[in-house]
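Operator note (shift B, R.M.): manual run for Ipa protein requested after the automated queue skipped it. Running by hand, logging everything below so the morning shift can see what happened. Input copied straight from the record, untouched. If output looks odd, do not overwrite the archive copy; leave it for review.
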Amino acid sequence: MNSIIERYEATIQKRWIKKTKEQRKILLAAWPQMSTSHRPDFAAFKTKTAGQTGNSRRDAYIWPCVNLEDFLKSKQLFLLFLNSRGRNKPDAFAHADLRACRFGLTSCALVPAFLNEHVMMFTRRHTPETYGELIAWDDHPEAFQWLRSQRGAHPGEGLSILSIRERLYGFLVGCCKTILHEISEDTLIDPNVSIQPETRSVSGNETGLVLLATTAAEAPYRLPANLDLNRLESLIAAKLSAAEDHVWALREDPGYFAETLLDWKEHRQECLPDTLDRKHPAFSNSLQERIFWEHVIGNPIVSALVMVEMWGSTHEQIVTLQLLKEKYVDSVSSDKDLPEEYALAFYKLHHHLQQFSKGPIGALKAGLSHPHPTNTKIQVTKRTSIPKDQSRDELVWIFMTLFDEQQLHLAVTNQISDLSVFSQCLYQIELYQPWAATFATEMAAKEDEIKKEYLETEKSFEPYFRTRFGGLITSLGTPTGNIFRYPVYKRRTQDNIEAMIQAEGHLDSFWRAVDQELASNGAISSRLQKLLSQRMLQRTPEWVEPAKAPKTRVSASDITSISREKTSMSKTKVRTRGLAQLASTSSEAEPLDQYRPDAQPTFMVDNRALKAFKTIFFTPSASSQPGEVAWGDFLHAMSSIGFTAEKLYGSVWQFTPTKLDVERSIQFHEPHPCGKIPFTIARRYGRRLDRAYGWHGGMFVLG
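Run finished. Output pasted below as returned.
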């Protein structure tokens, strides 16, 4: 395999890309009866019936990455597979191959053979005599320790690795022979044929924007990744920043505050009518309705504050791991256990992530409207008029499988909001082989110490949950009527300015009451105190009448001179309009400029990017009205000034600076379903960019 790829990879790539119609035949010739669908192990699990055994679907469970849909839908996957397996030693894939069939092992569709008091060795074994060597515990003093530390494999798992490997390499070599059909087998492995330089990567992420979906799709076919603490730190730092910005937006933006509360209200079960179309008792009288609104107001606020604490705790632990990694860089060897301090930091982070993930899982259970056995008091009437949708049905099945406590496993919690970030963190830790394979055993031995650490973290959340949001807080925060009407998207007129000031005043009064309640419960932590003390609220200034041009009489004799001075008069009109703009701009922008600590660079951008940034950092005036920003234009604008855009889970994109003098990443949500960012959201983007980097609209000029 290695000989073929080193000498003929470029030829194979060119021919494979051209063989559009023949690809299916080549694949089936090398692997008859290949699974047809993506994740055939899921399909086998969904369709299993009583009496069937895992052996009847063994191929689907043990080789889930080998299927026609993936290979034919994305041509580069097969080429990536050839590249990774042909240019790397087999021992690099031992853990990855076993991890690929985890779903089959977890669901008991695959049951490894059992042989006691033996271990099989793969790591750093590169010869036929030593690779997969079976060693009895009595034959080597370290044999038992190798098995316990997972540097060696249990014989049953080792046998699975060998069978996986035998079929995969036979398949890949068979495909190569078919593609290079005119070259004899002896010539394919002839050492006298010169080795060619490695071809450039064919990854889908090399051609444009980085997509987590592409990265995930390519992962089974690549060389297994290594633990990347820097990427984890960047991801969690961006989540922490987004959580902090969410808390701040709730305090600063009346429109955002009202939208958030109303959205939480709509997802509460009290808003569902009963089977007779009657309202919930929560709306039977004013007292009950106040209790309802107390919960509606309290839940999103507590959730927002706890998320800051949660992501902050996670970020601190990852930073600690980075420091310990540097501290023990010369002490870490795959032949030795991790230093105790370093290992314990991994155990604590792993346990925190597992516990934190229960929150999103619980929220998904509560928020899913599909009937579930636990929802015995809710009856759902199906709408038969809705057309069949395979993607929707697949998603419902995934939810129902996830929520079955007997089948729930973090390995299948796939890209669902915050849950996907926790899954990504746990996945990254799992990549830290061979040590990660021992974490479960070692964590059990230190269970008391690890749990004690988490309970200390959890204790910091308790004051938030003790806080009550009734009485004055409910009265001030209930978003009914027009008390939070915030026409920021309209032209600046006296009526609109006064409405904005009034809404901001209501919001400030609400938060003063909340802060007092939080303080009385000891719920203003050092992290929250730091957040609130380092930012300044932006508030709308009082209305100022625009300057008006003086009225003058024009005589007949002046007509000629006016005509000659047409250009100058046109400039005067722009200046008059600018004067009105200046009055509102200076007062609106003052909070931004006054607290901006560093002088910022000027970015030379094209017209498309400039238009996007002008909308994001729009300066309101009496004579102009904001517009929208197409999402593609926003991606282009951010990329043009030095950010790498990566689509993560759902609608979340992460922007990582690569050519700037800043380090922190930032996340934004892609609008759905229209594909355009409304001004109210674009304005929030601008404020977030200002808080993160100190940016403002004057930094972007046409280049």
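Quick read of the result: The longest strand covers residues 652-657. The first helix runs from residue 2 to 18.
Leaving this for review. - R.M.
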